Amino acid sequence: MRSILPFLALGSTASAAFSCTGHPTTVSLQWSLGWKWIAPDGYGRPVVAVNGQWPPPSIDVCKGDRLVVEVENNLGNETSSIHFHGFYQIGANQMDGPAMATQCPIPPGSSFTYNFTVSPNVGTYWWHSHVPGQTADGLRGPFIVHDPNPPFHFDDELTVTVADWYHTQAPYLIDYYQSGENTVLTGGAEPIPSTGLFNDGRNVSVKVQPGKTYYVHVINPGNFVGTYFKVQGHNLTIVEVDGVYVDPYEVDLLYTSVAQRWGVLLTTHSSASQNFLIQCSVDTSMFDDVPDGYDPNFYGYLTYDASKPLPKQVPLPSNPDYLDETVLSTSSAFTADQVAEYDHVDHQIILNLNFTAINNQTRATLNGTTMVPQLVPSLYTVLSAGQNAWNPIVYGKNAIPFVIKHNDIVEVVINNYDTGPHPWHIHGLSFQVIQRNQEGEGYYPGGFLHASTPNPVRRDTILIYSGGYAAMRFKANNPGVHLMHCHIEWHIEAGLTATLIFAPDVVQQTIKIPQDHINSCKRQNIPTTGNAAGNSKNYLNLTGAPTQPPAHPMGALVDPSSLGTPSTHGEYFPSNRKHWAPWVPPAL
Q1: Which residue of 149, 187, 211, 493 has the fewest C-beta atoms within 10 A of its own C-beta?
Q2: Distance CA 161, CA 163 (A)
Q3: How far apart are the two ends of the chain, measured CA to CA in Å?
Q4: Phi, psi of 351 (to 5 degrees)
Q5: Could you say which residues of the chain have pLDDT below 50?
Q6: What is the pLDDT of residues 143-161, one digit of tens each?
Q7: Rounded to an integer, what distance in angstroms lies between the CA atom of residue 415 and that of residue 430?
Q8: Which tens digits make up the pLDDT trace of 490-502?
Q9: Widest Cα–Cα separation across the chain
């Protein structure tokens, strides 16, 4: 049923003249997570809000600042966590955020503090929940790290988000996606987004002044598909990719897969005589089937003068051409980002990506194994396992673990045997994009590969096309547990994740788990020591370690009565699973 709530007229997200002194400070935030009813496109639904606010707040800090975020989970019926996407978290791996990798999920009624230094990261990032499905229910926002000395000139900054959006809550979508019915009827098709949102709304105006250059942070905080973004009458000069400066490269349109970011310079015209259309669309080529009448287009406006008329809405052409970012080079004006192609590989990981049916569920596999969360967070296994932390089996076969020595040069090669593309993300680093071919061009040919430029572009998320491969190279100089996974929300729930463990000996000497992190585990009876099965007496005995996915995944939903002392909370949606109404995908 459609909401009768009024359409939300959301304004542009702008970081007006954000000032950095060059002297780091501490930025402290207190976040209370709770449910809120909103209608960003005129259709009402519950979302996860921060301090009663949706869209949730953008985080703005300066390079080198310390960030402290105290999170209180007042959702009542769901766990949570916060991942700061793209941040290296050097020396602070316990603050990375993915539940059951570097922490326990935060249960309802509990508080949890993230505390880390924002260095050496600069540029365009975002934060989001890292428990099943919760990002799709709105718990995400921009995270901008302002550089006091960027290698290019601009007058002001803007942040824009371009993403898909669902009218149905994530637990329903996950339940159906992983159901036998979906496997049989559609072969495991992903839920189709209801629409797209520009700056978390529709027809949003981005206010600009004539004769100025804006550093525009473009983010796709979505769940499934890539998005197109074009500003009529203006070109965009790419100067930053996923927080890494690059040599300037001019384009007229951006394609951004889920979780990717761009930093672009946009120079406005000298006159405020007219306003301009911002054209956006979702990438329907990623759908298994496009429903009849589906409109992938949505819009915003670059507004010079609010008193003048807005331009007519004209859709983008279907599947427009866009930049292959492998042609980009790291910035010659910023030597810290110039890293020549690594000339050798110490540790190569080759993963064949595919999908299959396991127990009548659609499951993703890497080399034939589907990821299933284990009983102990992998970081806690590292910290308690002593010398056994070097043995991959202690993390559980279905964590798909790889243990890597400190400072090894690592190459990850993904062969995509699936029928669709996958935005592949690695936590804790930015990788050199050595090679990435196009759809149907074949799999890794073997041998030592070379990039197309001496200083290849680095990013933390790369789209890998169907019937093709990508090769990513990096130095394992950030000790900790780092997930690597497809960033399509539904594929994470289907097990398309592997686990990298860098330098367990260094981790054991440098990482300490705060007491409030331990308390979150205790409230849920999650062990904080032991192997993947929770066995701390014999780390090589994996009896009881999970190897099969849950029969009826519920996303982040929990039964509050299982958490000990109940918390005080307002109304939430849904109250528990037995009250769910049946949901089926819209007819094609």
Answers
A1: 149
A2: 6
A3: 19
A4: -120, 130
A5: 1-16, 563-588
A6: 999 999 999 999 999 999 9
A7: 20
A8: 999 999 999 999 9
A9: 74
